[in-house]
Design brief:
It is a single chain. The protein starts with 18 loop residues before the first helix and ends in a 5-residue tail after the last helix. It is an all-alpha fold and about 110 residues long. Helix 3 packs antiparallel against helix 4.
């Protein structure tokens, strides 16, 4: 689930602006939740695995893991996850369309 508090920034320096973070901060938490919920379980799992791979996640029951990063690096990670999500959703829609077209072809009656 998306945590809107993730977008809270501590640095108010106008010279250190990130357009994506600013855009996301302007969105209501309801919109962000709806977008996060619209992804299928498969897409969420792929993105989760991808982010964990990038961060080098260790099992939390065996390790006390703390990750430190700059705001720009986290913004880049967020951008990457968003683009991956859009790409995966497009691929999922394409697969669904191909399956629908195939089932329509199987159901059609050939003319003699």
């Amino acid at each position: 689930m998306f945590n809107p508090e993730f977008l809270a920034t501590e640095n108010n320096d106008p010279n250190d602006e990130n357009d994506l973070i600013q855009y996301l901060q302007k969105q209501s938490p309801e919109v962000l939740q709806r977008v996060a919920k619209s992804a299928s379980e498969d897409i969420q799992e792929i993105i989760r695995h991808n982010v964990q791979g990038l961060l080098g996640m260790l099992p939390s029951d065996q390790f006390d893991v703390k990750i430190t990063s700059s705001k720009d690096n986290i913004a880049n990670l967020l951008s990457s996850a968003m683009m991956t999500g859009y790409f995966l959703r497009q691929m999922e829609q394409r697969k669904e369309l191909e399956q629908t077209l195939k089932s329509d072809e199987d159901m059609s009656i050939e003319e003699e």
